[in-house]
Design brief:
4 helices; globular; binds coenzyme A; Aminopeptidase; alpha+beta; seven-stranded mixed beta sheet
Length: 159
């Protein structure tokens, strides 16, 4: 949907159910239990986490969760509605996450991704994440993850 007006908003607990629904649409089933409405609501209330929403023409089109740890930030969730991909929604959410982490004084953003997630890896490489190790059998179903890290002191415009 080129030209769609995009807004980024911090989530409130009342948004948790809608984000859980977006997760069910946009992530593989193996990820759904990690992001049910109750867990999302806890993340929204946590003082060390932030959940940002992408809203395009009143539709929830994406969401991201960042956890602010002692020495780094963790991008724990990033999902864009399948019908709104490749128009910059994910990049906008990532930009918000990066600004939040930098403002908190953190220089490193990391995430873990299913090793088979080609789109996720391409997105991360376009945003200057570097692969920093593979975690065999990381998920409950036995699949592997890769750990990706980005130095927030380096400009993040897509390559
Ligand atoms: C990965 C994801 C968040 C990307 O969101 P998006 O809004 O489509 O991303 P953007 O439009 O901002 O893409 C920015 C750049 O990333 C790269 N990219 C994104 N999706 C890609 C894909 N499927 N294949 C190849 N490159 C891709 C491209 O370089 C793209 O720039 P371009 O469209 O000008 O070529 C989205 O596909 C998604 O929700 N996937 C399922 C959840 C997931 O994998 N989450 C983990 C994310 S790290």
């Amino acid at each position: 949907m080129p030209g769609t007006a995009l807004r980024l908003l911090p989530a409130k607990p009342a948004h948790a159910a809608a984000v859980a629904q977006l997760v069910r649409i946009g992530l593989p089933a193996s990820q759904h239990p990690r992001w049910d409405a109750a867990r999302l609501a806890r993340r929204i209330r946590s003082p060390n986490s932030a959940l940002v929403l992408a809203v395009s023409d009143r539709y929830l089109t994406g969401a991201a969760v960042v956890d602010l740890l002692t020495d780094q930030a963790q991008l724990s969730l990033l999902v864009v509605h399948p019908q709104y991909r490749r128009i910059g929604v994910g990049s906008a959410l990532l930009g918000w996450v990066e600004t939040t982490a930098s403002t908190a004084g953190l220089f490193t953003l990391q995430l873990k991704l299913e090793a088979s997630n080609g789109a996720g890896r391409a997105f991360c490489f376009a945003h200057q994440f570097r692969e920093r190790g593979r975690l065999p059998s990381f998920y409950a179903d036995g699949t592997a993850a890769v750990r990706l890290v980005r130095d927030l002191r380096v400009n993040s415009e897509p390559a």
